[in-house]
Specification:
mainly alpha; 4 helices
Length: about 70
């Protein structure tokens, strides 16, 4: 099992990030589109706010906790 699989590729993670971006884009004036590298490294110079990056870090943590519980 790889970090890429845990945070990006598995069905639970895919749904999580789709739901996250849909909610984010509906509630904020800033539209984001997360790519694999954005999720894994939470870094896209000049294109994302600190709040968006912080939220990606929190999402990674939630996914990590979910996988350790199950």
């Amino acid at each position: 099992q790889t970090l890429t699989h845990l945070f990006v590729q598995c069905n639970f993670s895919k749904k999580f990030w789709i739901d996250f971006t849909t909610t984010w884009n509906c509630k904020n004036n800033m539209q984001i589109k997360l790519r694999q590298r954005d999720i894994l490294f939470a870094f896209q110079p000049g294109k994302q706010s600190v709040l968006a990056l912080t939220t990606v870090f929190l999402g990674q943590k939630l996914l990590h906790l979910y996988f350790w519980k199950n």
